Amino acid sequence: CSHVFEKKHWRPQSLHGPSPVTKFGPKACMLQNPHTVMHIQDPASQRLTWNKQPKSVLVIKKIRDASLLQPFKELCVFLTEMKDLIVYVEKKVLEDPAILDDENFGTITKKFCTFRDDLDDISNRIDFIICLGGDGTLLYASSLFQESVPPVMAFHLGSLGFLTPFKFDTYQSQVTQIIDGNAAIVLRSRLKVRVLKESFRDKLGNLCVFQVLNEVVVDRGPSSYLSNVDLFLDGHLITTVQGDGVIVSTPTGSTAYAVAAGASMIHPNVPAIMITPICPHSLSFRPIVVPAGVELKIMLSRDARNTAWVSFDGRKRQEICHGDSITITTSCFPVPSICFRDPVNDWFESLAQCLHWNVRKKQNHISSEDEEF
C-alpha cells in the first residue's frame, strides 16, 4: 500500500497529530499516558500527501442506480485510459445488465479487478477510494476496511450529500489534483464495537467486531415494552436507559440519526463520543458528549422485560439478550475523507446546503426616515 495512511506509518501515533502542551507553570505537569490515542490538531494542517505515486483506486457505486451509469463509465474510462490506474470494482456492480450489455464499455471492464464484499480482502491493494452516490456510499466504503482506510474522495450524486463534498462536473481536474497529492483531509473517527454473546461465551467465534463511522443504535425492536439497558463508562454504571433506545455516535454521526433525536452537531475534528437517548422515559435525560478515550459498555438491565436490538451504521442488525454486552471505544482507524476546500468550510457548507442550518427570512433594514415614525 503506497499511501501515507499505511498502518506502519501512522498507527503508533495519535490520530490527531502531536501532543498539546502538558506543562502548566514552573512545576505542574500532566501525567503522561503511553496509551493515549487522541489529541487535538489544527484542521488546516491536515493535508494529503503520498509516499509513492498512487497506482490503484477503488470505485464505489450505488448498485443498480441508472442515474449513476454514465458518471461511472466516464470516470472509469478516465482512470484507466488517461491516468493508467488499476481500478477495483465490486463484482455485483458489473452484474448490472446495463453494464453487461454495453459492448463499448466491455473493453474497459476487462481491465478491472473485482472483489466480493465479506469474502475478498482488499485492504492492502487500494491506494485511494472514489465514491459515486450519496452518504451511504461512503458508509459502505468504510465498512469494507476493518483497519487502515485509504483516502476517500466522495462525489455528490445521491439523495443526501452531507459527506460527499465534490460535484462531478469537474471530476477530471479534481481527481488529478488528488493524485498529485494536493488536498485537505478530515480524519473522521470511527467506533470500534465488540459484541459478546453470552450463549457463545465459551465457544470459538464468540466475539463480533465492527468499525462504525456514524452510530451504534440499541433499540427495543418489535417489543411494545420500553427498552431497559445499563450504560457503563470505564467500568462504572452511569445510568439506565429507559425508553425506545440509545444512540452512540461519532462526531460524523452527530448530524445523522442523533441530531434527529435532539443531539447537538459536532465537527468531525472534535475527539468525542455522543450518547443520545431515543424518546427517554425521563424528561431530564438529555444527550451528553464524553471524551473519545473512554470505554462504553451497554448491557440489558436485570429487570428488562424484553431483549434489545443493535445495528451498526444501519447494518448487521442483531438481537441482544441478557448476559450479552456491547463494548464501544474510539477506533485507531479513522476514515481520511478528502475535502473540497477544507474541514471547516466544507462542514458549514454541508450544514447550510443539506440541513438548512439557521436558514430564515431576514428582517428588513430600518432607515433613519422610518425611525422618525
Automatic annotation (TrEMBL):
GO terms for biological process: NAD+ metabolic process; NADP+ biosynthetic process. Belongs to the NAD kinase family. It comes from the Eukaryota. This is NAD(+) kinase. Residues 1-21 are annotated as: Disordered. Keywords: Kinase, NAD, NADP, Transferase. InterPro entries: ATP-NAD_kinase_N (IPR017438), ATP-NAD_kinase_PpnK-typ_C (IPR017437), NAD/diacylglycerol_kinase_sf (IPR016064), NADK (IPR002504). GO terms for molecular function: NAD+ kinase activity.
